[in-house]
Amino acid sequence: MTRAVVIVQARTNSSRLPRKVLMDFGGKPILLQIINQVSVASLISELVVATSEKQNDDLIVDMCQQNDVQVFRGSELDVLGRMTEAAKSANAEVVIRLTADNPFVSADLVDMGMSHYLRGHPLLDYVSNADNTNFPVGLYVEIIKFTSLLSVNDTEQSLEGREHVTSAFRRKPNFFKTHIFESSISFNNKYLTVDNKEDYDRLLPVYQRLIKKKPNFTLADIARLT
User: Fold this and answer.
1) Number of separate helices (H) and strands (E) present in the chain
2) Helix residue ranges, H only, 25-128
């Protein structure tokens, strides 16, 4: 089995909604809800939270340790370096990148992305549903071959590229083999990410209804309820 490691990118220093990843969202912090949903995916080997070395992110480390979740600490601003080192520490062959402000990400979405990657393996460097697809904002997953991530980490010089991790794969389509997948499901709600307090207030009751109906929800459950 390919060693596919989920790496959830998380920090508390959000300018629009500080500490949002630790805010209660249906009885648990947003970050923990994501971890619990994704951990049951069948095509993953391990899950790691990648946070920064800043003191304020001690709160994330504490939460992970209290819930037996692996955590890696690295640079706050050089997110590409942090993700690469986290993947290296976990002996990843494939990195499944998630961000901690997307609480509706489900296990079947992760498995869907991995299935697309495995069908194209070993030719594919990068698989995603984040660009020009019919998925709502916030239902995104990125699958990255670890050796390709290493290559980007070694060569990427721009601040934008270091911060946004995977932009090089989209900027260099002739250098990397990429695949973008879509959904056969139609979603009414097109924005399922928690970016600010308004998003939080709007999405919290939706999430509460969702987990009450089905604690380990699927993409189809999300589409029906949202």
Assistant:
1) 9, 7
2) 30-38, 58-66, 79-89, 107-120
The answer to whether the CB of 94 falls within 8 A of the CB of 143 is yes
- Decide: pTM greater than 0.90: yes
Give residue-wise pLDDT tens across range 25-40. Answer: 999 999 999 999 999 9
Task: State phi, psi for 201 to the nearest 5 degrees.
Answer: -65, -35
Cα 99 from chain centre = 4
Residue 16 reports pLDDT greater than 80: yes
Helix (H) or strand (E) holding 212: helix 197-213
Identify the three-state secondary structure at position 217: coil
| 91 backbone φψ class: left, alpha, beta (φ>0; ψ -120 to 50) | left
For residue 204, give Cα distances in angstroms to 29, 114, 192, 200, 226: 12, 28, 10, 6, 12
Across the chain, mean pLDDT equals: 96
Q: Copy the structure tokens of residue 204.
A: 């919290």
Q: How far apart are CA 190 and CA 18, in angstroms?
A: 23
Residue 53 neighbours by CB under 8 Å, 6+ apart: 73, 74, 75, 76
Residues 133-151 have a mean pLDDT of 97
State the Cα–Cα distance between residues 174 and 203, nearest whole angstrom. 39
